[in-house]
Amino acid sequence: MNTAWMKSLKLYTITQRGYIVSEGDMMVKFTAKLISIITVEEALNSEVSGTVRVRASHDDRELDPNQNVAILNIEGTTSYQAYFVDPDTDIEKIKADLEKYGAVLNHNSEEIIKKYVERMNNEGCQGD
After folding, report:
1. Chain centroid offset of residue 104 CA
2. Is 8 a member of any domain?
3. Residue 33, class by beta-carbon neighbours within 10 Å (0-12 exposed, 13-18 middle, 19+ buried)?
4. 128 residues of the chain, pLDDT tens digit each
Protein backbone atom coordinates (compact mmCIF):
# COMPACT_ATOMS: atom_id res chain seq x y z
CA MET A 1 0.00 0.00 0.00
CA ASN A 2 1.37 3.42 -1.00
CA THR A 3 1.10 5.79 1.98
CA ALA A 4 3.38 8.58 0.71
CA TRP A 5 0.40 10.92 0.26
CA MET A 6 -0.39 10.60 3.98
CA LYS A 7 2.88 12.30 4.91
CA SER A 8 1.77 15.53 3.24
CA LEU A 9 -1.47 15.75 5.21
CA LYS A 10 -1.63 18.10 8.16
CA LEU A 11 -4.02 17.51 10.99
CA TYR A 12 -5.81 20.62 12.22
CA THR A 13 -7.66 20.97 15.47
CA ILE A 14 -9.85 23.89 16.44
CA THR A 15 -9.69 24.23 20.19
CA GLN A 16 -12.45 25.50 22.41
CA ARG A 17 -10.78 28.91 22.65
CA GLY A 18 -10.73 29.35 18.86
CA TYR A 19 -7.14 28.36 18.20
CA ILE A 20 -6.27 26.48 15.05
CA VAL A 21 -3.46 24.09 15.81
CA SER A 22 -1.58 22.23 13.12
CA GLU A 23 -0.15 19.14 14.71
CA GLY A 24 2.41 18.95 11.89
CA ASP A 25 4.09 22.30 12.38
CA MET A 26 2.42 23.49 15.61
CA MET A 27 1.01 26.57 13.88
CA VAL A 28 -1.39 28.37 16.20
CA LYS A 29 -4.00 30.91 15.13
CA PHE A 30 -5.58 33.12 17.74
CA THR A 31 -9.04 34.62 17.51
CA ALA A 32 -9.49 38.39 17.71
CA LYS A 33 -12.79 39.37 19.32
CA LEU A 34 -14.36 42.82 19.33
CA ILE A 35 -14.57 44.21 22.85
CA SER A 36 -16.10 47.58 22.02
CA ILE A 37 -16.23 50.49 19.62
CA ILE A 38 -15.56 53.59 21.69
CA THR A 39 -14.34 57.14 21.21
CA VAL A 40 -10.65 57.92 21.35
CA GLU A 41 -11.37 60.03 24.43
CA GLU A 42 -12.86 57.02 26.22
CA ALA A 43 -10.01 54.81 25.07
CA LEU A 44 -7.36 57.21 26.32
CA ASN A 45 -8.95 57.08 29.77
CA SER A 46 -8.83 53.29 29.89
CA GLU A 47 -6.34 50.44 30.10
CA VAL A 48 -6.07 50.35 26.28
CA SER A 49 -4.73 53.89 25.98
CA GLY A 50 -1.25 52.65 25.07
CA THR A 51 -2.66 50.40 22.35
CA VAL A 52 -4.60 53.30 20.83
CA ARG A 53 -1.54 55.58 20.93
CA VAL A 54 0.59 52.92 19.22
CA ARG A 55 -2.05 52.42 16.50
CA ALA A 56 -2.27 56.19 15.92
CA SER A 57 1.50 56.36 15.57
CA HIS A 58 1.55 53.31 13.28
CA ASP A 59 -1.20 54.82 11.08
CA ASP A 60 0.46 58.29 11.21
CA ARG A 61 -2.77 59.74 12.56
CA GLU A 62 -3.60 62.53 14.99
CA LEU A 63 -5.70 61.51 17.99
CA ASP A 64 -9.12 63.14 17.67
CA PRO A 65 -11.12 62.65 20.90
CA ASN A 66 -14.35 62.22 18.90
CA GLN A 67 -12.93 59.59 16.53
CA ASN A 68 -14.17 56.03 17.02
CA VAL A 69 -11.87 53.11 17.60
CA ALA A 70 -12.59 49.37 17.63
CA ILE A 71 -10.88 47.53 20.46
CA LEU A 72 -10.14 43.87 19.83
CA ASN A 73 -8.82 41.31 22.31
CA ILE A 74 -6.70 38.44 21.12
CA GLU A 75 -8.54 35.69 22.99
CA GLY A 76 -6.51 33.68 25.45
CA THR A 77 -3.99 36.54 25.80
CA THR A 78 -3.80 39.97 27.39
CA SER A 79 -3.06 41.49 23.97
CA TYR A 80 -5.33 44.16 22.49
CA GLN A 81 -5.41 45.70 19.04
CA ALA A 82 -7.05 49.01 18.16
CA TYR A 83 -8.37 50.04 14.75
CA PHE A 84 -9.78 53.44 13.90
CA VAL A 85 -13.28 53.22 12.48
CA ASP A 86 -14.13 55.67 9.69
CA PRO A 87 -16.77 55.61 6.95
CA ASP A 88 -14.03 54.25 4.64
CA THR A 89 -12.83 51.50 6.99
CA ASP A 90 -11.86 48.38 5.03
CA ILE A 91 -12.49 45.22 7.06
CA GLU A 92 -10.12 43.29 4.79
CA LYS A 93 -7.23 45.55 5.86
CA ILE A 94 -8.05 44.87 9.52
CA LYS A 95 -8.12 41.14 8.84
CA ALA A 96 -4.81 41.30 6.96
CA ASP A 97 -3.21 43.24 9.80
CA LEU A 98 -4.45 40.73 12.38
CA GLU A 99 -3.02 37.94 10.25
CA LYS A 100 0.44 39.46 10.83
CA TYR A 101 -0.08 38.77 14.53
CA GLY A 102 -1.24 35.21 13.92
CA ALA A 103 -4.89 36.06 14.60
CA VAL A 104 -8.16 35.75 12.72
CA LEU A 105 -11.10 38.06 13.24
CA ASN A 106 -14.10 36.45 14.93
CA HIS A 107 -17.03 36.27 12.46
CA ASN A 108 -19.50 38.09 14.75
CA SER A 109 -16.94 40.83 15.38
CA GLU A 110 -16.41 41.24 11.64
CA GLU A 111 -20.16 41.58 11.06
CA ILE A 112 -20.55 44.14 13.86
CA ILE A 113 -17.73 46.31 12.48
CA LYS A 114 -19.14 46.06 8.93
CA LYS A 115 -22.60 47.11 10.12
CA TYR A 116 -21.14 49.97 12.16
CA VAL A 117 -19.27 51.28 9.11
CA GLU A 118 -22.38 50.83 6.97
CA ARG A 119 -24.40 52.84 9.48
CA MET A 120 -21.76 55.58 9.46
CA ASN A 121 -22.02 55.75 5.66
CA ASN A 122 -25.83 55.73 5.66
CA GLU A 123 -26.03 58.49 8.22
CA GLY A 124 -23.19 60.46 6.70
CA CYS A 125 -21.68 60.92 10.13
CA GLN A 126 -18.13 60.70 11.43
CA GLY A 127 -19.07 58.61 14.42
CA ASP A 128 -21.68 57.84 16.99
Report:
1. 7
2. no
3. middle
4. 444 433 444 444 444 455 544 555 445 689 999 999 999 999 999 999 999 999 999 999 999 999 999 999 999 889 999 999 999 999 999 999 999 888 999 999 999 999 999 999 998 655 54
Residue 62 to residues 53, 55, 69, 79, 88, Cα–Cα distance (Å): 9, 10, 13, 23, 17
**pTM surpassing 0.85?**
no
Residue 124, Ramachandran bin (φ over 0: left; ψ between -120 and 50: alpha; else beta): left
**Cα–Cα dist 126/68, whole Å:** 8
Domain around 85: 32-123
| Residue 26: inside a domain | no
Number of structural domains (the chain) is 1
